[in-house]
Amino acid sequence: MIILKSEEELLLMREAGRLVSEAHALVEQHLRPGITTKELDELVASLLKKKHAQSIFLGYHGFPAHICTAINEEVVHGIPGKRRLSNGDIIGIDIGVRLNGYCGDYAVTYPVGEISSQVKELLEVTEEALYKGIKKTVIGNRLSDISHAIQSYVEGRGYSVVRDYVGHGLGQKMHEDPPVPHFGPPGRGPRLKEGMVLAIEPMVNAGDFRVKVKRDNWTVVTSDRSLSAQFEHTVAITRKGPWILTAL
Ligand code: MG
Which CATH class is domain 7-244? Predict the structure, then answer.
């Protein structure tokens, strides 16, 4: 069941979204070769504590950290730890918070130090794919119009879209209906209505779309070990068009 949000609820979700974007700004300030993913996790944990907010990932099916990190061939759901970032790495950072009962979910893939122009292109295509999807997040469209816009753009640029993990509705819970695939034909699924809130989060691989889960039971990697990037925003559907709740 898709839960539509009132204007009051959207304002609360905007506050949660603003906090997630503040957390990203903090991470970005500290991101450099030599820092560990655990240190990034601690930065976010202390900000959330100060703001009386909670990580929606911590404890989720036993997930042991406040943020998810994904370095290079890692796709999503990596656990922060002792690994130090190196010059030329890319790192996906996914931050989800609950503030005053409502969730915000926002992911960015950052370059660490200097990255090659080839890798830069992967990041640009992935971020642009997210915006191609957001453009379709308007009243009257069907859900899979978002999916199709993302897949056709990504594949047109010579990259692939991960199938095994998809976006989602969100509100008081991190995962609500509907699931939001980033691939598929247009014109399918529910009609988009005012008050729907979706987390759109394409994962784009430089090689094949297939992925697998590592032995820690969390970290998803590309099957062919090619690089992977992800960008995500929480987006509300309004009469004025898509409202990116997680923008700064
Ligand atoms: Mg999400």
Answer: alpha beta
Q: pLDDT tens for residues 98-128? A: 999 999 999 999 999 999 999 999 999 999 9
Residue 122: the pLDDT is 98
3-state secondary structure the chain: CCCCCCHHHHHHHHHHHHHHHHHHHHHHHHCCCCCEHHHHHHHHHHHHHHCCCEECCCCHHHCCCCEEEEECCEEECECCCCCECCCCCEEEEEEEEEECCEEEEEEEEEECCCCCHHHHHHHHHHHHHHHHHHHCCCCCCEHHHHHHHHHHHHHHCCCEECCCCCEEECCCCCCEEEEECCCCCCCCCCECCCCCEEEECCEEECCCCCEEECCCCCCEEECCCCCEEECEEEEEEECCEEEECCCC
Q: 96 C-alpha to center of ligand 1: Å?
A: 8
Identify the segments of the chain with pLDDT beneath 70.
none
Q: What is the pLDDT of residue 64?
A: 97
Determine the distance separating the centroid of ligand 1 and the alpha carbon of 156, expressed in angstroms. 25
> What's the gap in Å between 105 CA and the centre of ligand 1?
5
> How many angstroms does the Cα of residue 225 sit away from the middle of ligand 1?
23
Residues with CB under 5 A from ligand 1 (ion): 105, 199, 201
Tens digits of residue pLDDT in 8-25: 999 999 999 999 999 999
